[in-house]
From TrEMBL:
Lineage of the species this protein comes from: Bacteria, Bacillati, Bacillota, Bacilli, Bacillales
Organism: Bacillus badius
Ranges of residues in domain Histidine kinase: 20-223
Top-rank lineage group of the source organism: Bacteria
Annotated coiled-coil segments of the chain: none
Name the UniProt record assigns to this protein: histidine kinase
Included stretch of the parent chain: 304 to 528 of 528
Length: 225
């Protein structure tokens, strides 16, 4: 019966998720419909821009959700997480400097092999970096650390000196569409949590308003070469 209970909970969660996706997509669709209706009476240039923006928003929401549909078929391989992390940092460097953010890498452990899907892991790092950048509109520091734990796991810690969060905000992370940003989707943490779960890892977030945020993830090290 325990398994049945878990399944029922999962179904309820899927139902809730479907309802919120439908809601988030219906909003821009309603806007688009309104503008097209207006266009019958003469098309205004500025409306075209708004319609495009709403279509882009639907596209973004749908593509973020696609990530969740893939894990069943994604390929897992043993990868050196140091390399995956450093490649992602390199990709991010330009965006960081443009935003006056200094990226500091501390004590990155040499080689830890993790059974992972490289692209998904990169997506987790990118989502966390992006949130940090968005939390530091006036610039700041992004401090990245990676070390092996005594129990054969690898810990990756990302700290920013941004606006931080209240405890209630931290609680809401991962709830689909929870965002405090005007152009946010509120899907970042849902995806981060899902991928970390797929990798049998854990996630821990600490934050202080106006001080900054620390995101810590722990992943099991693969014993096979
Ligand atoms: P989005 O970035 O689209 O808003 P996320 O799921 O990535 O969605 O984040 C949800 C919310 O959590 C953000 O809107 C923000 O309020 C808060 N948040 C996430 N990361 C940070 C951070 N590093 N510093 C401050 N607030 C954050
Ligand atoms: Mg985000």
């Amino acid at each position: 019966t325990e398994e049945l209970l878990v399944n029922t909970e999962k179904l309820a969660a899927v139902g809730q998720m479907a309802a919120s996706v439908a809601h988030e997509i219906r909003n821009p669709l309603t806007t688009i419909r309104g503008f097209i209706q207006l266009a019958e009476k003469g098309f205004e240039e500025s409306h075209a821009q708004l319609i495009l923006e709403e279509i882009d928003r639907i596209n973004l929401i749908v593509s973020e959700f696609l990530v969740l549909s893939k894990p069943n078929v994604v390929h897992f391989q043993n990868k050196n997480v140091k390399k995956v992390l450093e490649e992602t940092i390199a990709l991010f460097q330009a965006q960081a400097s443009m935003n006056n953010i200094e990226v500091i890498t501390e004590a990155i452990t040499d080689s830890c092999r993790v059974h992972c899907n490289e692209n998904q892991l990169k997506q987790v790092f990118i989502n966390i970096f992006k949130n940090s950048v968005e939390a530091m509109p006036l610039g700041g520091q992004l401090i990245i650390r990676m070390e092996e734990t005594p129990d054969a796991k690898v810990m990756i810690r990302i700290t920013d000196t941004g606006e931080g969060m209240e405890a209630e905000q931290i609680q809401k992370l991962g709830t689909p569409f929870y965002t405090t940003k005007e152009a946010g989707t509120g899907l970042g943490y849902m995806i981060i949590k899902h991928i970390i779960e797929q990798h049998k890892g854990t996630l821990n977030i600490r934050s202080k308003v106006k001080k900054g945020t620390t995101v810590e993830m722990v992943l099991p090290i693969s014993s096979m070469e």
